[in-house]
Every structure is written in structure tokens, then in C-alpha cells.
Amino acid sequence: MKFLFVGTNPENTGAATHFVALALAMAEAGHQVSAVVYPNGLIANALAKSGAKLYPAKFRNVFDLRGYFATFKAARDLQPDWLVGNFGKEYWPLILISRLLSLPVALFRHRTPPMGRLSQYLVPRLAQRFFAVSNHARQAYLDRGVPPQRVRVLYNPVSMAWCKPDAQRRSDILHQLGIPHDAIVLGYFGRMHHTKGIFTLLEALDGAMAQESRLHCLWLGHGPDAQQLGERIEAGSFAHRHHLLGWIDDVHPYYSAISMLAFPSIATETFGRVSVEAQAAGAPVLASNIGGVPETLSPDVSGLLLPPGNAATWRDAILKLCESDVREPMGAAARDFVDQHFSTRVIANEFVRILGNG
């Protein structure tokens, strides 16, 4: 099949990561993939080596005629089997272009807050396919009146090759950071914001580190509460076992360095790609039982679901996964779980099946 993906968002967001992952999954599966992208943006750079044909364009907003012209020209020239959109500001342009050129359009929605009243009613009904990225998100759309038959679920695909565990990589990263080779390393990869549960996690880690001398923590990410987090760490008793690395463009190598991943959000999450990627690397996940997060793991098999904001429970769960006879079987099960439910192979096949089934 021929696909024209349209994603002109220049920012590094979860939706942008999904856009890239799905486009690469379809190319990997042997489909012809082209993309309309923001020039020199994150998506363009990520797809540059994939062999996909890229068309530069910018949509400042839904009324930006330059974006319309560039996307219309690409779609007219390519005549793809499907137009695929991922960002709200491109929904209406893609719906219009699909009508003008008689091309079907598939649109993804990554957020649960409501669209404008008119868009909320019409967009899922005018797109030939409208996708949520979790069952949690789908239910939110149904609760606002979208007909059930108009909303399909397609999870974020994850490359098993990118997330493959690598013992040498782990050794190199730990050596660079001055972490003992036998350390138990918990990772937090995400935005440094209180709604992500970072302060609950820090409190839990303080309690766990007091009981487990081998426990270290890698913090990857940035955000408005990064400074406050760093100050609290420095004021604590275990600052030398916390490693704040800031923003990392490519986090995939660091999955090999961690023994487990924490996803401690206290605010609703639509999904949780970082949870899936960590499991693909063989790291079990401690995750908040909130929003779409439970869909990312197999509870008590590939990870543990925990109550958001309960530091004592999180401390005990961390200590539980510090036990190798608990952690290692979960890590092995985690990679199998992701391969069966979220791998690029599985998601590409499911996408084609849904597109073809009407």
C-alpha cells in the first residue's frame, strides 16, 4: 500500500514520536511511505534515513494556505491509498484534501481533552478511519458522543531492534556514570513535572535506598520542576546515587542500563510509550494504575500496577523488584509481552487490517 503521512509539528511530543514510529513500521513492513513534514524538524530528521520521500511544509494553524498547497500537491502527485494525519491542526486540511482528491484519510487522536464542539462531532464522522491510541482514550471519546463504530484503537508501535538489551552498552553507560557494575538501577524517563509523580518517586526511592545499598536511579528528561527535583535530591541522604542526565535526544541506549523503569504519574495519561519501550529492553515496569497506563503492561507478569501518589507502596514495590528472582523473570516476560502486542510487525499488520475492514 502507499501512504502519505502528514505531520508538520516541529516539536518533540508523544504524538510526533508515534508519527515517526508508525511511518517506520509501515516502511519496514514493505509499504511505500512518503511524508509531509516540517523542514529540519524532529519528524523530518527521524525519517530522513528511512528512504521515505519527504515533502517540506508548515501548518501554523488550520488556516495556513501554504500548508494546504504543499499537502495537496504531494497527495495529487502520489495518489496514495491512504492519507494519515496525527495532529489536530491538520485534521480539517486533510479532510478537505481527501474530499477534493477522493482519497481516504485516517486520523489519530492522542489526547483526551475535548476538541471544539464542531470538530468533536464532525472529525470522527468525516474521516474514513479515526484512531485512539488506547482503550482509555477511546472511552473518553465515546463518553462525549462519538459513535463506537467510528473509533478504532491502534497502539504505538515499538521497534524491538532499537530497544534490544545490550550488556556491553549497559556496562559502558554505568562506567561513564560511575555506577558500580552490580548496581540495581531504576530509571525515570520523562517530563520533570509534579503531575508525573516525580516527587512521590523520590520519596519512595529515599525509603528504598535506605534498605538497599545497591539501588541507584537514572533521571532522564527536563521540565519546569527539574530544578526543584535536583534541589531535593541534593538535600537528601542519597544524592550520590541519583544521576540526573537532563534531556537525552535518543533514550534507547539507556534502556539497557536500567534494571527497572518507574512510571509514577499522578495525572491521567493517555498511554505510556516509555513503559512499552522499557519492557522491550527487558526491564520490568512499576506503573501508576491510572488512565491508559495499565494497557502498557501485563500486571504481575511484566511489571506492577501501583496506586498513584502512595510513596510507601512504591517504596515496597521498588524493593520487591530489587530481588533478582522477582525482577529477572519479569524482565524476560516483558520483552515477550511487547513483541506480541506492540512490535512494529504486529502494529503494522493491525493497521492494514483495520484500514481494509471498513
Topology diagram in text:
Elements: E1 2-7, H1 14-28, E2 32-37, H2 42-47, E3 53-56, H3 65-78, E4 82-85, H4 91-101, E5 105-109, H5 117-126, E6 129-132, H6 135-143, E7 152-153, H7 167-177, E8 184-189, H8 198-211, E9 215-220, H9 226-235, E10 242-246, H10 252-255, E11 260-263, H11 273-280, E12 285-288, E13 303-306, H12 311-321, H13 324-341, H14 344-357
Parallel strand pairs: 1-2, 1-4, 2-3, 4-5, 5-6, 6-7, 8-9, 8-11, 9-10, 11-12, 12-13
Helix pairs in contact: 1-14, 3-4, 8-12, 11-13
Mean pLDDT: 94
CATH superfamily of the largest domain: Glycogen Phosphorylase B
Span between termini = 16 Å
Which radius of gyration do the C-alpha atoms yield? 21 Å
Largest sheet: 7 strands, parallel
Give the overall shape: elongated
Within the CATH hierarchy, at the fold level, what is the topology of the largest domain?
Answer: Rossmann fold
Query: In CATH, what is the class of the largest domain?
Result: Alpha Beta
Instruction: Label the CATH architecture of the largest domain.
Output: 3-Layer(aba) Sandwich
Please indicate the count of domains.
2
Helix content: 40-55%
Spatial strand order of the main sheet: 3-2-1-4-5-6-7
Q: How many DSSP E strands?
A: 13
Structural class, please? alpha/beta
- Oligomeric organization of the protein chains: single chain
Helix run count: 14
Strand content: 15-25%
Question: SSE order, as H and E?
Answer: EHEHEHEHEHEHEHEHEHEHEHEEHHH
Which residue ranges are poorly predicted, with pLDDT under 50 across at least 5 consecutive positions? Answer: none
